[in-house]
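Async update (no meeting this week)

Hi team, since we skipped the sync, here's where things stand on the single-chain job. The sequence we agreed to prioritize is pasted below, unchanged from the tracker. I ran it this morning and attached the output directly underneath so nobody has to dig for it. Comments welcome in thread, and please keep replies under the output.
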Amino acid sequence: MNAPKFLGHASVGIAVGLLAVAASAAPALADGSSGGAQHAALAPALSRGFTWGTLRAGDCQQTNGRLTLNSDGTGDFSADTLTFQTHTHDVWHATFNLSTVSGTRLLTVGPLDSPGMSDGNPPPVYHWDRTFTFDPALYGAIGAASQSYSC
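Output:
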C-alpha cells in the first residue's frame, strides 16, 4: 500500500522539480509595487528579432522599430513614431515581408498602423505595439525581414 503513495508523491515531486527548473530559467519581471515582488514569466521556446533605425516617410518618422517572432507563431512589432507637420492625425503604416535568407518570400504581416499622430513643438513621440500571429511551421525558415512603410 505504501508503494503507490510513494510513487504518487515522487511524481508530484518530479513535476514540482521540473516546474522549479522551468521557472528559474524564465526571466524575472519586477513589478512596480513597493514590496519589490518578482513574477516569473515563461518565455516562448525560441524568438528572433529584427530592428530598424530611423525611417522617414513624408512628414513622419519611425525610430526604435523592433519586430519579434516567436516559435509558437506569435509576433510583436513596436516602434516610436512622430509627425513633424500635421493636425490631421497622420498614421504610420508598416507591412513586413518575411523571407528565407536566400530571399524566398514566406509571408506578409500587416499593415500594422500607428495611432493617429499630431505635431507639436517639439513633436510628441507615439510609442506603439502591435501583436499578430503566423503559421509556426514557418518560423525555422524565416531568415530576413523587410519593412514597407508609408505615412
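Quick observations from my side:
The radius of gyration is 22 Å.
The chain has two domains: 2-40, 47-150.
Reply here if anything looks off.
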